[in-house]
Amino acid sequence: MKIAIYPGSFDPITLGHLNLIKRASRVFDKLIVCVMVNSAKKPLFTVEERVEQISLVTARFDNVEVDHWEGLVAEYARLKDAGAIIRGLRALSDYEKECQMALINKKINPDVETFFLASSEKYMYLSSSAVKEMAAFGADLTDFAPRELIVAIEERVAQSRQA
Ligand code: ADP
User: Fold this and answer.
1) CB neighbours of residue 34 within 10 Å
2) pLDDT for 24-36, tens place per residue?
3) Which residues line the pocket of ligand 1, CB cutoff 6 A?
4) Fold of 3-162
């Protein structure tokens, strides 16, 4: 069985992430979307909330699982017997950082290959930060965030601005 891991912060998951999940889930037998715990970042949503949100919006994909991991993705891949790590490439600015990460992951776990999926044109400039910024200015998130999560994102962004 070909298993792939899609690691990320997903704070929050956007339509760009979801587009990647849909496309990668067609190529692999199983895709595990893994929320990576990064203690250096102050997230908008807790890890548990992000896992719950991703589970909700990926429920229609039979071969997609959601998990979280506090550690190296290459080690997580080994644990799950996954041969592939999926990452998205948007503008050129993603490229250098992603290549460096792919090399490090290969060094830690030589059995794992990183696969880059080009972002769809529609989501080329979409990021979780952009969604948060748009929410802060009261912009309509319909084209950027999963419908089911829009109210939660708007509310949390408003709360965090009051704090
Ligand atoms: P990280 O903190 O690991 O970069 P993100 O949640 O920001 O976590 O992104 C996870 C992965 O999804 C990264 O590989 C990123 O390039 C990719 N990604 C994010 N937004 C998009 C998008 N709009 N289109 C394609 N890939 C994307």
Assistant:
1) 24
2) 999 999 999 999 9
3) 8-10, 14, 16-17, 20, 87-88, 90, 94, 119, 123, 126-128
4) Rossmann fold (3.40.50)
